[in-house]
From TrEMBL, chains A, B:
Annotated TM spans: 26-47, 59-78, 98-120
Keywords from the named record: Endoplasmic reticulum, Membrane, Transmembrane, Transmembrane helix
Organism encoding this protein: Balaenoptera physalus (Fin whale)
EXPERA domain segment(s): 1-116
Protein name: Sigma intracellular receptor 2
Length: 134, 134
């Protein structure tokens, strides 16, 4: 596992995983505590079907995950990874390397976004909401 | 305004506002784009009353705001603010100074938490949800 991580961080120039800052570690903590428990619950709800109660947990999960990706993607795209910076020359240098690393993290933003839009737009899940408005 | 900010950052040893890292700036961006527009909408909904449709926006707002506070509070509590660190000696040194700064940021976590719990627990807003489960 450590070799895999070393290969990944060097290959993808992922400075965040190489020397995780405190803020990044706090998100790993979030993932363990709030996001992982959601997966079995959601899997159950979607396989069983007809579980409207999954709407609110799914909205909370997707908003929380998407929010954690905002600083991660911003850092990958805009952070100063020069030798003078906190990352001491680790991390992507060229714009191409930054985009490469963004493509690694982007799915963790897009999949919750799709889930959120699905929960907000799907007539089955929002049907009650609609009635509330009337 | 700049004097006020200077006074605050020096008085409260807020290294995040003194030299905002990219990840912290991305949250300031979130606040402007997603959180500020929520306030007039929520004010309208709560003053008008009976607006069940505010439930989902309120949940999204509070989860998003609380999530941004996790790395901020973690950094204030656990980050290395020594001269050798990225913050170059700026920021709270003693545990008391850290707690003092946490007390500044804590309301931005607690108020959304209260709003979230209110929206999840209040029988008026969750009444439809309940019916869904049955």
């Amino acid at each position: 596992m450590r070799n895999l991580r070393q290969w990944y961080t060097e290959e993808f120039k992922d400075a965040l995983l190489q020397n995780p800052p405190v803020w990044f570690k706090s998100f790993l903590f979030c993932e363990l505590v709030f996001q992982l428990p959601f997966f079995p619950i959601a899997t159950y709800a979607f396989f069983k079907g007809g579980c409207r109660w999954i709407r609110t947990p799914a909205i909370i999960y997707s908003v929380q995950t998407m929010t954690t990706l905002i600083p991660i993607l911003s850092t990958v795209l805009l952070e100063d990874f020069s030798n003078a910076s906190c990352f001491k020359g680790q991390g992507p240098k060229t714009f191409h390397e930054r985009l490469f690393l963004i493509s690694v993290y982007m799915p963790y933003f897009l999949i919750p976004l799709i889930l959120l839009l699905f929960m907000l737009q799907n007539p089955y899940y929002k049907s009650e909401e609609k009635r509330k408005k009337k």
